[in-house]
Structure formats: C-alpha cells, structure tokens
Amino acid sequence: MSTIPALARKSRLARYFQNIKDSYTISRRSYPWVGWALLGAPLLIIGLAVLLATATGQALWYWLVMAVLLSLVADMVILSLTVRRASLTQIEGHPGAAKAALDQIGRGWYVESEPAAINLKTQDVVWRVVGRPGIVLVVEGPTGRTQSLVADERKALKRFLSTVPVHVIHVGAETGQTRLADLSSTMRKLPTKPTRLTDAEISQVTKRLTSLPGRGPGIPKGIDPTKVRPDRRAMRGR
C-alpha cells in the first residue's frame, strides 16, 4: 500500500513534464524563437548573479541559487504567455474559435454557452458576453458579410434591454478586425463610462438574455463551437 502514493506522485510528475513538453511544442510552431528565449533568460539571470556576487562581495553560491530559482520562474512565464497566444493563433479562422478565447477571459464576464446567432451556410457566428462595459457581441466572419447578423442582434437587444450599452468586436485577420489572441485584452479595454454595470446588474442582464427566445437555427451538425480547443496530438505531429 505504501507504493500507491509514490506511484501517484510519479504519475503527477510525469504529467507535469508532459504538459511542459506539449506547451513547448505548441509554442515553437508559432514562435520558433521560444527555445532561444527559454535558454537565454537563465543565462542572462545567471550572468547578472555572478556580476552582483562580484560587486557586493557576497557568496557566489547564494546568488547562483537565487538565479536558478528566478530562471525557472522566468521560463515558466515565457512558456505560459507564448503557449496561450500560440494555441489561439493556431485555431484562428475555425468556426467557434472565439469561444475558446472567451472561455479564458477570466472573472467578471458571463459568456453564453450557445451562440446568439449563427449562419448555417457561411458558419458566421455571433457570441454574447456580459461584463462591466455592458453587452459585447463577438462576431466571427467577414465584417461585411456579418452586418445583417449584427443588426438583427442589436435590434433584439434594444427591444428588451434598451438601457444596456452594446459593443461589437469583429474577430479575424482582416483589416479592422481583432486578432483572436488579442480578444481578451480588447474586451478589458472597452469603455465603462458613462455606464458601468454592477455585479447585480450583470446578473440581471444575464437572466434577461437567457429568457430571450432563440432566433438562430442552432449549432450546425458536426460543429461544436463551444468545444473548440487546440488539437495537441496534431500539433505534436502525431
């Protein structure tokens, strides 16, 4: 029985290193320089530690220990930042990819699990999100082609929630659109003046939205925009 905890720890450690390996593989596909960054950051930190130890006259081993710890933290930060952007970049353009980015937006936002509107033929999608700035319509598809979807959604919201501000963000690679990796930061920069919703108001608006009758035809068969995730096995070339 004593071997069970040891095996569990070994399994967790193996998964941890596998996650690091997968993250590096995903990051390298979009950012070929990430390997040099992961190598260069520790070398720079250790070099600074040696200089500080020489300048202050303190024990070199102390500064080297601190440098190793800081190097590990620096590499984890670099890897976490690059893997998130890389994974979003690699699914950009796929139907429902915006939902993957919205699911990572953090606290303070309510993201509906189903699209507010969807065009079955073109697979253009409109997602509704509620936060401090009001209601945000996140639109996937060419700006010109999705104008009717956005207009219909604006009319519905004006009819039922006329006092709540509505913002529109077009996600894509076209000029004037927001890249998928920048969606979260763009939403956080939306204006909250003169209207800033409180937690209670966000809850009320969310309940009103869920009670609205569905206008869209639903999610196309074979496509689940709510579950778009990077295919890590494919990214590893398997």
Automatic annotation (TrEMBL):
Residues 211-238 are annotated as: Disordered. InterPro entries: DUF4191. The chain crosses the membrane at residues 33-54, 60-81. Keywords: Membrane, Transmembrane, Transmembrane helix. Residues 224-238 have a biased composition (Basic and acidic residues). This is DUF4191 domain-containing protein. It comes from Actinomyces howellii.
